[in-house]
Task: inverse folding
């Protein structure tokens, strides 16, 4: 898989954005991926594509999701 897309309510997307800015793993994902955000009124979509064209490492997003759920959700 070379692209991953997440469409969810805005509060979760904001949590992901927060983790991408402040978490060490999130900063690494930002360095290695192109990130596009399509904002909506109630829900938004965030899309990740590797900059080098290689396949996405699932463990990176599994751990990022863990940190978002643990530290960035109310």
Result:
């Amino acid at each position: 898989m070379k692209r991953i897309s997440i469409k969810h309510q805005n509060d979760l997307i904001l949590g992901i954005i927060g983790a991408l800015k402040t978490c060490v793993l999130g900063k690494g994902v930002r360095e290695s991926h192109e990130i596009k955000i399509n904002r909506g009124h109630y829900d938004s979509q965030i899309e990740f594509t590797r900059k080098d064209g290689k396949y996405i490492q699932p463990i990176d997003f599994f751990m990022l999701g863990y940190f978002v759920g643990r530290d960035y959700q109310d």
Q: What stands out?
A: Residues 29 and 40 are 23 Å apart (CA to CA).
